[in-house]
Write a structure and sequence with these properties.
With 173 residues, the chain is an alpha+beta fold. The protein has three helices and eight strands, in the order βββββαββααβ. An eight-stranded mixed sheet has the order 1-3-2-8-7-6-4-5. The radius of gyration is 16 Å and the shape is elongated.
Length: 173
């Protein structure tokens, strides 16, 4: 792993960002396929609200096209997997948002369009530093091995991911 200064943008890498008490660490892992310019990207964001993952911005699943539904189902699956992992530790994040972007191989959305790549973005706010460690482990587990739909996307095209976890706990220095 290579350490990267905060704010550095790296093309063709997988970024993990973990913030603790105002300090930020970003690690980059080599990603074999370069991420190309997104000209036809499908994007879905879900947020944990009252124990369920809901689409943001007032969107409804009925409004999504079939390609976006695949992304929506994957975001739901990843979120439920994370909550299942942390549930045994009785940790509930203050905020959990998952965005999945998929780049299509056609300039416009068509029935024949196929995904060329995916990017999964996890944004989490925890109550404490201890919760942050538990959630960090759960997000990595879901992304790397436990979520079946993320695994399915990996079989279809390269999947990059970003993880941002912060704690709202005040720390005495």
């Amino acid at each position: 792993m290579q350490t990267v200064n905060k704010g550095t943008i790296i093309v063709g890498t997988l970024l993990h960002k973990i913030s603790t008490s105002g300090h930020s660490t970003t690690c980059a892992t080599k990603f074999h396929n370069k991420i190309t310019t997104m000209n036809n990207t499908q994007k879905v964001t879900v947020e944990l609200k009252n124990g369920k993952f809901r689409l943001t911005e007032g969107r409804k699943a009925d409004d999504l096209n079939p390609k976006a539904l695949v992304l929506y189902a994957t975001a739901q699956c990843a979120g439920l997997t994370i909550m299942g992992i942390i549930g045994k530790d009785e940790v509930i994040p203050k905020r959990l948002e998952i965005t999945i972007e998929g780049v299509l191989d056609t300039p416009t959305l068509t029935a024949e369009s196929r995904f060329r790549s995916f990017n999964v973005i996890y944004r989490v706010e925890c109550k404490s530093l201890a919760d942050q460690n538990t959630v960090s482990h759960a997000v990595r587990e879901a992304q790397e091995s436990r979520c079946g739909l993320v695994a399915m996307l990996k079989m279809a095209a390269p999947v990059a991911h970003e993880i941002s976890i912060v704690s709202s706990e005040s720390v005495n220095v």
